TrEMBL record:
Residues 561-592 are annotated as: Disordered. InterPro entries: H3K4_H4K5_MeTrfase, SET_dom, SET_dom_sf, Znf_MYND. One of its GO terms (cellular component) is nucleus. This is SET domain-containing protein. Gene3D superfamilies: SET domain (2.170.270.10). Keywords: Metal-binding, Zinc, Zinc-finger. GO terms for molecular function: zinc ion binding. Residues 561-580 have a biased composition (Basic and acidic residues). It comes from the Eukaryota.
Length: 592
């Protein structure tokens, strides 16, 4: 059960209205734990999420409510009895507030079917009917607010299919079309190809105020645990706090400044001298994914499979022969940590062989599938899975994600977590069902916010490999220690990823071509882009994985303008950006 007092969050402004909504959210979450198949509670919580400005979480709850309506309506469905029983309780109690909405309550007698012989709808059917319209309203407006226009329109049309004159749904359809015209740059009289509507949006990327799983990565306990685990993979390294430049979104005129603002994050440091060419880290991970059906990679480590012949070492699972491992070691690791949770359930099939433009998303959802399998088989919460618990999520403080409704409000916040109905809500629930997990009874583990948090962690840290056949990304992995190494355009290591992720100390440095090697105490400096490129291209390439414009010494030196041509510092930009880094991930060191 979630703790009722929010922790692990940077949200500390005491806004009574917000506090009240957060308390109500907790009450409803506890209610769902007691009565997991209650679709009215899901709708109630969706409304609270909308009021708290989490449209993605509202859509997640409205979709679960819609699935429960299907359960109520179809006797052959697995949770029919439970969903019906929960709804019956509302049918005999006072009419649910969440359905006293706009024209809804008046429309209850206009049911298309399900009327009883005396012409009056059975109360439970009437509730299910009204609830379905409410689900379509919440789903369509929420998905519109997330930027998922195609899915928003789909749900809106489904609602209008039941109640063509419903004013709220008609209004929402108008908003969707208006936003679509803006995004696709179409005038009012041009036809709109509804199939081409954008469906990928962005939502808040934050440590939710109620998330009690996020560790304090800077605490002695976290660092000592991480260092204990790191000892085998990188015996000459340690995880420590690193002071990194605060990144801006784009080009800056501050390259010549001697001191720039920094923030505290984690990094890897050498604890002993490391020779040029020496291995620095060799990391094994089970958090891997491959999106091709017939691919010759190991299901566990994602390394190439050896040729399948006697004594090659490759092994397949005796219970689902399609799953192949490159060695007995990988087979044993998979059996111990995740495979029985997905064995013979065809779970991965939902995201295999995607369209070229969906390759990235399919890899992310398959990484999520692996986290779900690790969590289910080890019987731990997904956010406690060791492969993701301590990794960087690029979270932004809750308060800077909030929407300011005051008259003098500035521009709306820039939300940064990619989101879509398909990959963030529908597919994860489908994966869980394939794993034979009751998605209602396990809400605490598989709630939409939990999935969003896991996604936030992969998105900043996963590595992908492209197929040599068609250049599409088809293998991905998260190496929780490798991804602690920060970037520098004069790196002291280089990396190679096969079955394991390996970091080597460079023989020669890029800047000055001096001898490589790393001295005890120095930070391990990885590279997130091709460091042989000119500065502008390096910065553009690195900005995706880095999350901003590279401000390393080399970039600043190469891009710096002569003294007589310098402009004033745009410190306001930094302060704005620094605010996000400060409370999201450690204390702010401020401008020097
Ligand atoms: C893969 S993580 C690296 C580990 C991370 N520092 C941590 O605390 O876990 C990537 C993030 O680290 C930060 N980072 C890495 N290299 C950096 C650099 N040279 N300058 C500024 N920030 C950097 C950025 O915030 C980036 O999004």
């Amino acid at each position: 059960m979630e703790a009722s007092s929010p922790s692990g969050s940077s949200f500390d402004d005491r806004d009574p209205h917000r506090e009240h909504l957060l308390a109500r959210r907790q009450e409803l979450t506890d209610g769902l734990e007691r009565s997991p198949y209650d679709l009215i509670l899901y709708l109630d919580r969706a409304v609270v999420y909308s009021n708290l400005a989490y449209p993605d979480l509202a859509a997640g709850d409205a979709y679960r409510a819609l699935l429960l309506i299907d359960e109520v309506s179809d006797e052959s469905f697995e949770y029919h009895e439970q969903a019906l029983e929960a709804l019956n309780e509302h049918a005999v109690a006072s009419f649910p507030d969440v359905l006293q909405h706009g024209e809804l309550a008046d429309g209850g007698t206009n049911m298309a079917d399900g009327d009883s012989p005396d012409g009056r709808a059975e109360p439970v059917k009437q509730l299910a009917y009204l609830a379905s319209i409410r689900c379509y309203q919440i789903l369509s407006i929420s998905l519109l607010l997330c930027g998922c226009l195609k899915s928003a329109l789909n749900f809106c049309d489904r609602g209008l299919g039941i109640v063509p004159d419903n004013k709220e749904l008609r209004d929402i359809k108008g908003y969707i079309e208006r936003v679509a015209r803006q995004k696709l740059r179409k005038s009012d009289d041009e036809p709109l190809d509804l199939l081409s509507l954008p469906d990928r949006g962005v939502v808040r990327r934050e440590i939710y105020p109620w998330n009690t799983h996020e560790p304090d990565r800077f605490s002695d306990a976290s660092l000592s645990l991480l260092n204990k685990r790191l000892a085998t993979a990188a015996p000459k390294c340690a995880v420590r706090v690193s002071h990194l430049p605060v990144l801006l979104d784009g080009a800056t005129n501050t390259d010549n400044y001697n001191n720039i603002p920094t923030c505290s994050q984690l990094g890897l440091f050498a604890t002993q001298d490391i020779e040029p060419g020496e291995s620095v880290l060799s990391e094994y991970t089970l958090l891997t994914a491959n999106n091709r059906h017939k691919e010759s990679t190991c299901d566990a480590c994602s390394g190439e499979l050896p040729p399948l012949q006697d004594n090659s070492g490759a092994m397949s699972c005796p219970d689902c022969c399609d799953t192949v491992f490159c060695s007995e070691f990988c087979f044993d690791q998979a059996q111990a940590k995740y495979h029985p949770g997905v064995c013979d359930r065809d779970v991965d099939a939902v995201a295999k062989d995607p369209d070229a433009k969906e390759s990235d998303e399919s890899l992310y959802v398959l990484l999520l599938a692996r986290v779900l399998a690790l969590s289910a088989h080890q019987d731990i919460h997904p956010l406690e899975v060791e492969e993701i618990k301590y990794i960087w999520g690029d979270f932004v403080p809750t308060r800077s994600n909030d929407i300011d409704l005051s008259v003098n409000a500035g521009p709306p916040p820039d939300w940064t977590l990619p989101f879509s109905f398909k990959y963030s809500i529908e597919m994860p629930l489908h994966l869980l069902e394939k794993m034979d997990i009751d998605i209602y009874a396990t809400l605490d583990r598989y709630d939409t916010w939990v999935l969003n948090t896991a996604y936030a962690k992969f998105r900043g840290t996963a590595s992908a490999r492209k197929s040599t056949r068609d250049g599409r990304p088809d293998v991905a992995a998260v190496h929780p220690f490798w991804c602690l190494a920060n970037h520098d355009c004069d790196p002291n290591v280089t990396w190679e990823w096969g079955g394991r992720m390996v970091l080597w100390a460079r023989e020669t440095r890029v800047v000055g071509h001096g001898r490589g090697g790393i001295k005890a105490g120095e930070e391990i400096l990885n590279h997130y882009c091709d460091v042989d490129l000119p500065v502008q291209q390096r910065r553009e390439w690195a900005s995706g994985s880095l999350g901003g414009w590279c401000m390393c010494q080399r970039c600043r030196q190469e891009a710096g303008t002569p003294k007589d041509k310098r402009d004033d510092v745009e410190m306001a930009d930094w302060v704005k950006k620094a605010d996000g880094v400060d409370s999201a991930d450690g204390q702010m060191d401020g401008a020097h």
